[in-house]
Amino acid sequence: MDRITLVRGDITTLQVDAIVNAANSSLLGGGGVDGAIHVAAGPDLLKECRLLGGCEPGEAKVTSGYRLPARWVIHAVGPIWRGGRAGEEETLRDCYRHALMRAVELRAASIAFPSISTGLYGYPVERAARVAVQEVRRHLAESPLPEQVTFVAFDDETYEAYRGLLEA
Ligand code: AR6
Fold first, then answer.
1. How far is the CA of 105 from the centre of ligand 1 (A)?
2. Span 48-64, pLDDT tens digits
3. Which residues contact 12 (CB under 8 A, 6 or more apart)?
4. Tens digit of pLDDT for each residue in 88-144?
5. Which residue of 12, 118, 154, 166 sits 20 to 30 Å from the alpha carbon of 37, by its own alpha carbon?
6. CATH, domain range 4-167
7. Are 116 and 127 in contact (CB under 8 A)?
8. Would the CB of 119 count as within 6 Å of ligand 1?
9. Could you count the other beta carbons within 10 Å of the beta carbon of residue 109?
10. Which residue in the list 2, 10, 17, 34 is annotated as catalytic?
């Protein structure tokens, strides 16, 4: 499907309408991609996040992108991996689904996703990539927006997991 692209690199540099943040439920910043997004966007991002009242796992909330090339940040909260029997897959699916719903509401033509939950939250990369690709494909089959979805892999393992699935 040519509406899906895979790139390696730093999501904060991408010129897309919206980037997705792998946030925590406080929405007040953290490490990993969340930290990188807050640094790149500048302090006004945190000010807006403070007004949002947090976010439940599986949900997604929108802010402006401030100093980022992206116009919006869609903050999604993934599940913390607890072995796989605590509803992690369902919560991860909800994350992608709700982030894509926010993108449609914004009429965003392009969106980029990091590999939600597979860093500090410990979700196995291959399993998470399968969920991400399935949910994005499901959404695109039913919706003209966003026109383009980019998966951003920050390391080789993530890149290879997505490459295998997207070539299949
Ligand atoms: N661009 C793209 N991907 C990145 C970047 C970047 N600049 N930096 C890291 N990654 P993580 P999580 C990758 O830990 O597992 C935060 O503290 C990273 O290599 O950022 O959902 C939050 O506040 C990995 O593949 O997110 C939460 O507390 C992927 O992004 C917690 O971490 C996700 O790793 C969320 O943990």
1. 25
2. 999 999 999 999 999 99
3. 19, 36, 37, 39, 40, 41, 68
4. 999 999 999 999 999 999 999 999 999 999 999 999 999 999 999 999 999 999 999
5. 166
6. 3.40.220.10
7. no
8. yes
9. 14
10. 34
Smallest Cα–Cα separation from 79: which of 131, 24, 132, 126? 24
Annotated catalytic, 94?
A: no
Q: Which of 56, 74, 117, 154 to mutate to test the pocket of ligand 1 (most atoms within 8 A of CB)?
A: 154
- pTM equals 0.98
Which residue is it, tokens 């979700």?
123
- The 10 Å CB-count burial string (b at 16+, else e) for 120-146 is bbebebebbbbbbbebbeebbeeeebb
End-to-end CA distance of the chain: 10
DSSP line for 119-132: STT---HHHHHHHH
Both structure tokens of 90: 């369902």
Question: DSSP code of 78?
Answer: P
Burial of 24 by CB count in 10 Å (0-12 exposed, 13-18 middle, 19+ buried)?
A: buried
